[in-house]
């Protein structure tokens, strides 16, 4: 019995030690973020990271992401089987189920919305079979429901999307998509040629800013090169892992 109790106490200590070690290592990773703002850990400025009156000091200052983004993204369930009908029905469902009232306002189209061939100006255009009315019309529909529309592209230096690599297209050619009334851009990491995300993601931030429209910039660089240490001034959010799915095994990654 005593032996069992000792074993139990040991286990408790082990668990405490584990949490202590993880919090120390998390602090060590966050510390460089805070160094320029005073005492790196538990200093007088530590609380300001979470202080909303300090908005813009620790994050991209485009007025967005004062709280985490909430809504729907087409990829996990539909993958490439999307259409403007799916997007419209989803917008309708967010409203009719009451989710929109709870803050789930983003309706985000993922990969496969565009035609494989670009237009004569070298711009991405919606697939005429699945998005015949175009992105502007879809944005108007979604906005009419009080929701926001998101779209997708890729930060591969010479390609545009995961489904169809397109070689040799400069980033500026993609910005027109978001100026067509879109509120959110997910920027993926396919065909990245091993170029660090720190180099590939800022140009789109600047291009989005130059449109004058407030566009949520979601970095999807798969957690490469510890985005928590540098992405705060590049995007409104960044993903920390590879794709997840609706299984506990995958969420644990
Ligand atoms: C694609 O989506 C449509 C509904 O929009 C559905 O009827 C069809 O079964 C789906 N196809 C596949 C292969 O999942
Ligand atoms: C552009 O960037 C400046 C400087 O960070 C910021 O004040 C402004 O709100 C941004 N504008 C848009 C539309 O994102
Ligand atoms: C989800 O991820 C787990 C863990 O990686 C994998 O075993 C499983 O096959 C995936 N399920 C689907 C539906 O992709």
Automatic annotation (TrEMBL):
Keyword Disulfide bond: yes
One GO BP: carbohydrate metabolic process
EC number: 3.2.1.22
Top-level taxon of origin: Eukaryota
Record's keyword terms, sorted: Disulfide bond, Glycosidase, Hydrolase, Signal
Molecular functions per Gene Ontology: alpha-galactosidase activity
PROSITE patterns reported for this sequence: ALPHA_GALACTOSIDASE
Keyword Signal listed: yes
Catalytic reaction list: Hydrolysis of terminal, non-reducing alpha-D-galactose residues in alpha-D-galactosides, including galactose oligosaccharides, galactomannans and galactolipids
Signal peptide: 1-26
Family the UniProt entry places it in: Belongs to the glycosyl hydrolase 27 family.
Protein name per its UniProtKB record: Alpha-galactosidase
